[in-house]
Structure formats: structure tokens, C-alpha cells
Specification:
Blueprint lengths: L2 E7 L6 H14 L4 E7 H8 L3 H17 L7 E5 L4 H11 L4 H5 L2 H10 L6 H4 L1 H10 L5 E4 L4 H18 L10 E4 L28 H9 L20 H9 L1 H12 L5 H27 L2 H30 L4
Parallel strand pairs: 1-2, 2-3, 4-5
The structure holds tryptophan (TRP) and iron/sulfur cluster.
Iron/sulfur cluster binds next to helix 11, helix 12 and helix 13.
Length: 329
């Protein structure tokens, strides 16, 4: 079986953007691939170093988010980044192989720095793509299923691997070059029409949201601003709700666009239909969430067992890399 590695920072609950961009894909792949899921609590520190308690609470929440959408404990190795010493060690080795300028020009780093209002970037934040290369390579992952914002990071990982092999491989590939496995669904816009649904943007529907909350959020979603009365014709091309129908209700999307353009459906009804569709998706997730929330010890055990397995592989990798680098007494 080929191995995939992917995961999330433990900075709060996951939302529909994560589901569409990544989680959905993981669920599909778990049977065909040896699936590694990282709970990236160290990477979480790069932006949330002042909120360690929040990061810690998020670990179990993000784990449950993953389990609630259908990842099965017996199919996956879910592990905590901070428990894997190999990741820390590889990060140091790899840091020699990456220029500061390359990191400064990384488009995802730039976007995120702007988003968080960082001007003078910390060493850790600037370098997190290097640590992410360690996340991916410590277990020799073949594939990394990610959304488009992670593509520059994966490119960097591949460069590091090539560089490492060239320098220390003695003609052999000590490390494997990971391949991206891109989600086919485009990035989900925020409820406010913002290009991205984001935890820090206040425009997200969370997998853990209640029915009432989903309903209220959809009611407030941004539509065609020129459409005031039901008899006005609408323009679905500039409407967030229409975009969501395209993603979560694709069978009816064409029809809804037609009705909107001819004034045949009002925004209230259109939103109500979207809410129904989202509820159909979220209901089974809520049931699984409730199951695991009543069995937190089981969730912890999944992470402990996964971290042990990951550590065994990680320690072997460190030995191999050190040997190839000639780091020994
Ligand atoms: N940076 C990723 C995110 O914000 C999370 C992550 C950490 C990750 N390490 C990874 C994703 C390794 C893929 C592979 O979503
Ligand atoms: Fe958007 Fe639907 Fe209103 Fe058209 S009818 S503007 S698609 S919410």
C-alpha cells in the first residue's frame, strides 16, 4: 500500500472549507492507502504561540472532526506532531537546505502573514514549510492530499528531498519525493463572499455547528446585492449561495441559476434549500461526533497508538538520514 500523509493545524474546529478541500478526499482514500493524519500542534504554535491552552483543547476537537466525517480508526494512523521527535530533528537538518529568500517568497506564507497581520515574521513562522517537509518525509509518504494553498509547501518538500538525496544519497534516493494529490473541488468561498472560508475570518460553517447555527449562518450569507425584491432578476454568478449550491447541491445547481435569473425563486427559499442540503451532509457527522464525544478516552487512545507507530518509523528514518549524512561518532 502506498502511504499518504495529510493533516491540520490544531487551531480550532474544522469547517466546510476543510471538508471540501481535504477531508472528503481523505475519507475516500483511507481504504486504498496507508493513511497518516497529522495533528499539527507545533505548527499551530507558529501563529498561536500565545494561546497554548487553545491549541491543546483543539487537539481532541480536530481529531474528532476527522473521525466525524468518516475516517475510521482502524484505517488510519492519527498522530500528534509534538510527540514525534523525528519531525523536530529532520526540521533542523532540512533548515540548512532552504534559503530564507525562498521562504519569504512563498505565496502561502505571504498570504497568511498578511492575514494574521505579521510584519516582522518569526523564524518559526517563516520556517514552518520546512517543518512541514519533515512532517511529510519522516514516514516516507508517497502522496499528500491537499488543497491548493498547500501546493507551494509541497513543492518545497520535493526540492528539499532532491537536495538531500543529491548531497547525501551517494547516488541513491534516501528520501522519497512526495507527490501532491490535489482536491478536485475548488476552494470554498466564505459566507461573506470572501475568497476563502477561514477560521480566523468569521465566515465559516463548522462541522460541529448545530442545525440552528447552520440555518442562521446561511440566512446571513451574501447574495446578489442588487436583488432586493423577489421579482428582481438575480445574478447567481456573484452569489455565494449559488456557489454553495454548486458544491453541495450540484444536481439542482443549473436549475437554481435559471430560476434566479428569471426571478423564479426568491433568496429566502433558495437559502432554505441550501440549508436542507447542508443538513443532509452534516447530520451523519453530528451523530459520529456525539459518539466520540462520549468516548474521549477512545479518541485519546487512537492518537497515542498512532503516535507510537509514527515514532517507530520516524526513529528509523532519523537513523538512516544521520548515517547517510555521516553524523555519527
Ligand atoms: N499546513 C497545513 C494546514 O494548514 C497542515 C499541515 C501540517 C499539513 N503539516 C502537514 C498538511 C503536512 C499536509 C502535510 O492545513
Ligand atoms: Fe443567490 Fe439564490 Fe438569491 Fe439567486 S435566488 S441571488 S442564487 S440566493
Amino acid at each position: 500500500m502506498k502511504r499518504i500523509l495529510t493533516g491540520d493545524r490544531t487551531t480550532g474546529n474544522l469547517h466546510l472549507g476543510h471538508y471540501v478541500g481535504s477531508l472528503q478526499n481523505r475519507v475516500k482514500l483511507q481504504k486504498e492507502y496507508d493513511t497518516y493524519i497529522i495533528l499539527a500542534d507545533i505548527q499551530a504554535l507558529t501563529t498561536h504561540f500565545e494561546k497554548p491552552a487553545f491549541i491543546q483543547e483543539s487537539i481532541l476537537q480536530v481529531a474528532i472532526d476527522n473521525l466525524s466525517v468518516g475516517l475510521e480508526p482502524e484505517n488510519i494512523t492519527m498522530f500528534l506532531q509534538s510527540k514525534i521527535s523525528a519531525i523536530a530533528e529532520l526540521t533542523v537538518f532540512y533548515s540548512m537546505l532552504v534559503s530564507v529568500n525562498a521562504l519569504r517568497h512563498n505565496p502561502t506564507i505571504k498570504t497568511e502573514a498578511r492575514q494574521y497581520g505579521f510584519e516582522d515574521l518569526s523564524y518559526g513562522f517563516l520556517g514552518y514549510p520546512v517543518s512541514q517537509a519533515a512532517d511529510i518525509t519522516f514516514c516516507n509518504a508517497d502522496l499528500v492530499p491537499v488543497g491548493e494553498d498547500q501546493v507551494p509547501h509541497l513543492e518545497l518538500s520535493r526540492k528539499i528531498v532532491r537536495r538531500f538525496n543529491d548531497l547525501y544519497g551517494n547516488g541513491k534516493a534516501v528520501l522519497k519525493e512526495p507527490q501532491p494529490l490535489l482536491s478536485t473541488t475548488p476552494r470554498l468561498v466564505g459566507l461573506d463572499g470572501n475568497a476563502k472560508m477561514g477560521k480566523s475570518l468569521g465566515n465559516a460553517i463548522y462541522l460541529a455547528d448545530s442545525s440552528e447555527s447552520v440555518k442562521a449562518k446561511v440566512r446571513q450569507a451574501v447574495t446578489d446585492p442588487n436583488r432586493i425584491r423577489k421579482t428582481d432578476v438575480g445574478n447567481p454568478d456573484i452569489c455565494t449561495v449559488s456557489t454553495y449550491h454548486g458544491v453541495f447541491n450540484s444536481e439542482e445547481h443549473g436549475n437554481i441559476c435559471e430560476l434566479c435569473k428569471t426571478g423564479g425563486v426568491g433568496c429566502v427559499a433558495c437559502k432554505a434549500r441550501l440549508t436542507e442540503k447542508l443538513e443532509q451532509l452534516l447530520l451523519p457527522f453530528r451523530e459520529k461526533r456525539a459518539y466520540y464525544e462520549n468516548r474521549m478516552d477512545q479518541v485519546r487512545e487512537v492518537i497515542v497508538a498512532g503516535s507510537e507507530r509514527a515514532n517507530r518509523i520516524g526513529n528509523e528514518t532519523v537513523e538512516i538520514l544521520k548515517n547517510s549524512m555521516g553524523i555519527r561518532l
